[in-house]
Amino acid sequence: MSLPATPSQTIGPFFHMGLDVPGTERLVSADHPGAVRIEGRVLDGAGDPVNDALIEAWDAQGARFGRCATDADGRYRFLAVKPSGGSAGGAPAEAPHLNLSVFARGLLDRLVTRIYFPDEEASNAADPVLSMIADPGARATLVARSEAGFLRFDIHLQGEGETVFFDL
Amino acid sequence: MTTMAPASLDADRPPLLYPPYRSTLLRAPKRPLIVLPPRLSELTGPVFGEGQIGPLDHDLTRQHAGEPLGERIIVTGRVLDGEGRPVRNTLVEVWQTNAAGRYAHARDQHPAPLDPNFTGAGRCLTDDEGRYRFVTIKPGAYPWKNHPNAWRPAHIHFSVFGTAFIQRLVTQMYFPGDPLLDHDPILRSIPSPAARTRLVAAFDLTVTQPEWALGYCWDIVLRGRCATPMED
């Protein structure tokens, strides 16, 4: 038996009442060894902040999950750790990364992207997923930038510097 | 390694750019998505437990001192994978307007009354048959500014995790017979009419409880490529 999947619909602008639980932006506690703050803004094709997006982060290696709604500036933040890289079922090893789902008003389906880490140049260069992206500029949209005390990962939904998104 | 998604799937999925839904215009990516073969990251997902669910989280009519106004309903169904197998113990989250079509949300400016006895948010875990069940009131239609005289049909927002990142689904459930369904660009963004009907619940007299509440059934089918990824 094969059943057709239920179609996606937009999360809309009012998801906070159901999904925005305080504290869930922390994948680890603040005193966790190696805890790193990751933050960024979600921007639309006009460069304006998207203040009604929900970002979910999945650390598959550590089995850790977090979720954060963007604020008035389009900003989200997570507290996470850099996962160990790894492979499954004989697949080539992947560089450490977090998996992101992006939901927003105006997105009829979620967008999927990844955050890679800037201090992993060698493993990023060998990563089988990053290697699928021919354009170095596009590939760079998936690597967070190191800032004082945190990592920045902006999500450009459309246009200049558009983030690479995946179809699973 | 980059491949295009099969065309047969496309008619069942809303495109990211759908101009009749204006908010897609500046938010839909313009570059093609990169097809990602599922790996560990995509074949695993967060697990939630009973500890995260309150005893009244599934009953939106009992979260305040009094009962909310509106038509009391039961909404139930199964979460299944593409092979028809139940997806057990998965988190289902819902949110909706009150009976007047107003969200209990600071940004909702629709001049319809708030109901002090209704928040409109619920959550539960599916049981061993993949079944979820909510008691709530029927949400109302409401106007929005997408186009002149635009109204959203009554709907309940659903968020479902499944067992893997690839299965994550956020969608909306609609009610049968609603005349607004034919005029809603969000629903109509799904190209296939048959696929649209899969978002419409069925009235069910066997779920309906005499003298108490109308029953609606709605099954949710998650993408099936990897329903039990860790068994392989």
Give keywords.
heterodimer; A: 168 residues; mainly beta; Protocatechuate 3,4-Dioxygenase, subunit A; 3 helices; 30% strand; globular; B: 232 residues; 5-stranded mixed beta sheet; 4-stranded antiparallel beta sheet; 12 strands; disordered N terminus
Overview of the molecule:
The complex is a heterodimer of chains A (168) and B (232). Chain A is mostly beta strands. Chain A has a single domain, classed as Protocatechuate 3,4-Dioxygenase, subunit A (Sandwich), CATH 2.60.130. In chain A, 9% of the residues lie in helices and 30% in strands. Chain A is built from 3 helices and 10 strands; from the N terminus they run H-E-E-E-E-E-E-H-H-E-E-E-E. In chain A, the strands form 2 sheets. In chain A, strands 1, 4, 7, 8 and 9 form a 5-stranded mixed β-sheet that branches. A 4-stranded antiparallel β-sheet of chain A has the order 3-2-5-6, with no helix packed on it. Chain A is globular and about 40 Å long. Chain A starts with 15 loop residues before the first helix and ends with a strand. The mean pLDDT of chain A is 94. Chain B is mainly β and 232 residues long. Chain B has a single domain (18-26, 52-227), classed as Protocatechuate 3,4-Dioxygenase, subunit A, CATH 2.60.130. Helices cover 7% and strands 23% of the residues of chain B. Chain B contains 4 helices and 12 strands. Chain B has helices at 7-10, 40-43, 185-188, 193-197; strands at 34-35, 72-80, 91-95, 121-125, 131-137, 142-144, 150-152, 155-160, 169-174, 202-203, 214-217, 220-221. In chain B, the strands form 3 sheets. In chain B, strands 2, 5, 10, 11 and 12 form a 5-stranded mixed β-sheet that branches. In chain B, strands 4-3-8-9 form a 4-stranded antiparallel β-sheet, with no helix packed on it. In chain B, strands 6-7 form a two-stranded antiparallel sheet. In chain B, strand 6 (142-144) and strand 7 (150-152) form a beta hairpin. Residues 1-8 and 226-232 of chain B have low confidence and may be disordered. The interface between A and B is large, with 65 and 75 residues.
